[in-house]
Protein: Farnesol dehydrogenase
Amino acid sequence: MILNLERFIGKVAIVTGASVGIGHAIVTELVKHGVIVAGLARRVELIEQHAKVLEDEPGKLYPFKCDMTLEEEIVSTFNTILSELGDIYILVNNAGLCLSTDLINGDTQKWKTCLDTNILGLCIATREAAKNMIAKEIRGHIIHINSIVGHEQLPIPNLNVYTATKHAVTGLTGTLINDLARENIPIKDTSISPG
Structure:
């Protein structure tokens, strides 16, 4: 990703799940390379703290509170970003969670939260970013943070619903690539699978 960031200097990137972990690291690198980043998370105060740390970097981090299980909140947040920061050039679908449960004694609410966050939230964010990129003829980049368990089933207890969501991300990446190619839309789509 770093090799191609020069053309995105001063452009807007959205990173979901930006408060901790991989999302936090992605935000840091983008801002250090001059990108304007809208960081989304439920715990917006963590992004606010991070923005202060990054104040002297070439780019800038703007915190946005957003629950990726709520479509209205996702759409509203994207609209606010478009009106306040400008058009979207990069979307990093990083928000995701693994709630410990299984299919034998499973907790339906945990399943639903995991599915809504890891799959539907990603789909809604992708749609909203792609609409803007297509309308403005932006050669943007959509990146899905997947997982190694999106390609194989590991014998780790209580991962089954999480594994299923990451397999869905693998499938969604492939179908989005096909859709973009079919419509001759110059948006890149990438899936990254940390181990």
User: Anything to note?
Assistant: The beta strands are 12-16, 36-41, 60-65, 88-93, 141-145, 188-192. The chain has one domain: 2-192. The longest strand covers residues 36-41.
